[in-house]
Hints:
By secondary structure, the protein is α+β, with helices and mostly antiparallel strands. Helices cover 24% and strands 34% of the residues. β1 and β2 form a beta hairpin. α1 (53-62) packs across α2 (64-73). 12% of the residues are buried.
Amino acid sequence: xxxxxxxxxxxxxxxxxxxxxxxxTKRRFVPNIQKKKFFVPETGEFVTLxxxxxxxxxxxxxxxxxxVKKLESKGIxxxxxx
Length: 82
């Protein structure tokens, strides 16, 4: 399963492990993606989403419905049907 956030679009990036001797080997930085069920009071139903923890904090602050509407007004397609 892909590690991509539904809202922020965060996905794995690559970088280097750097040892004490300054030797570099490739590594992968993966975002902290969680599967979480949210209640949407506007529609009265639960929605299960794969979101990053930073998006979870924003959802807790604004609410799911308001956050989706904010992203849609910016022209970002979340792929979430509310």
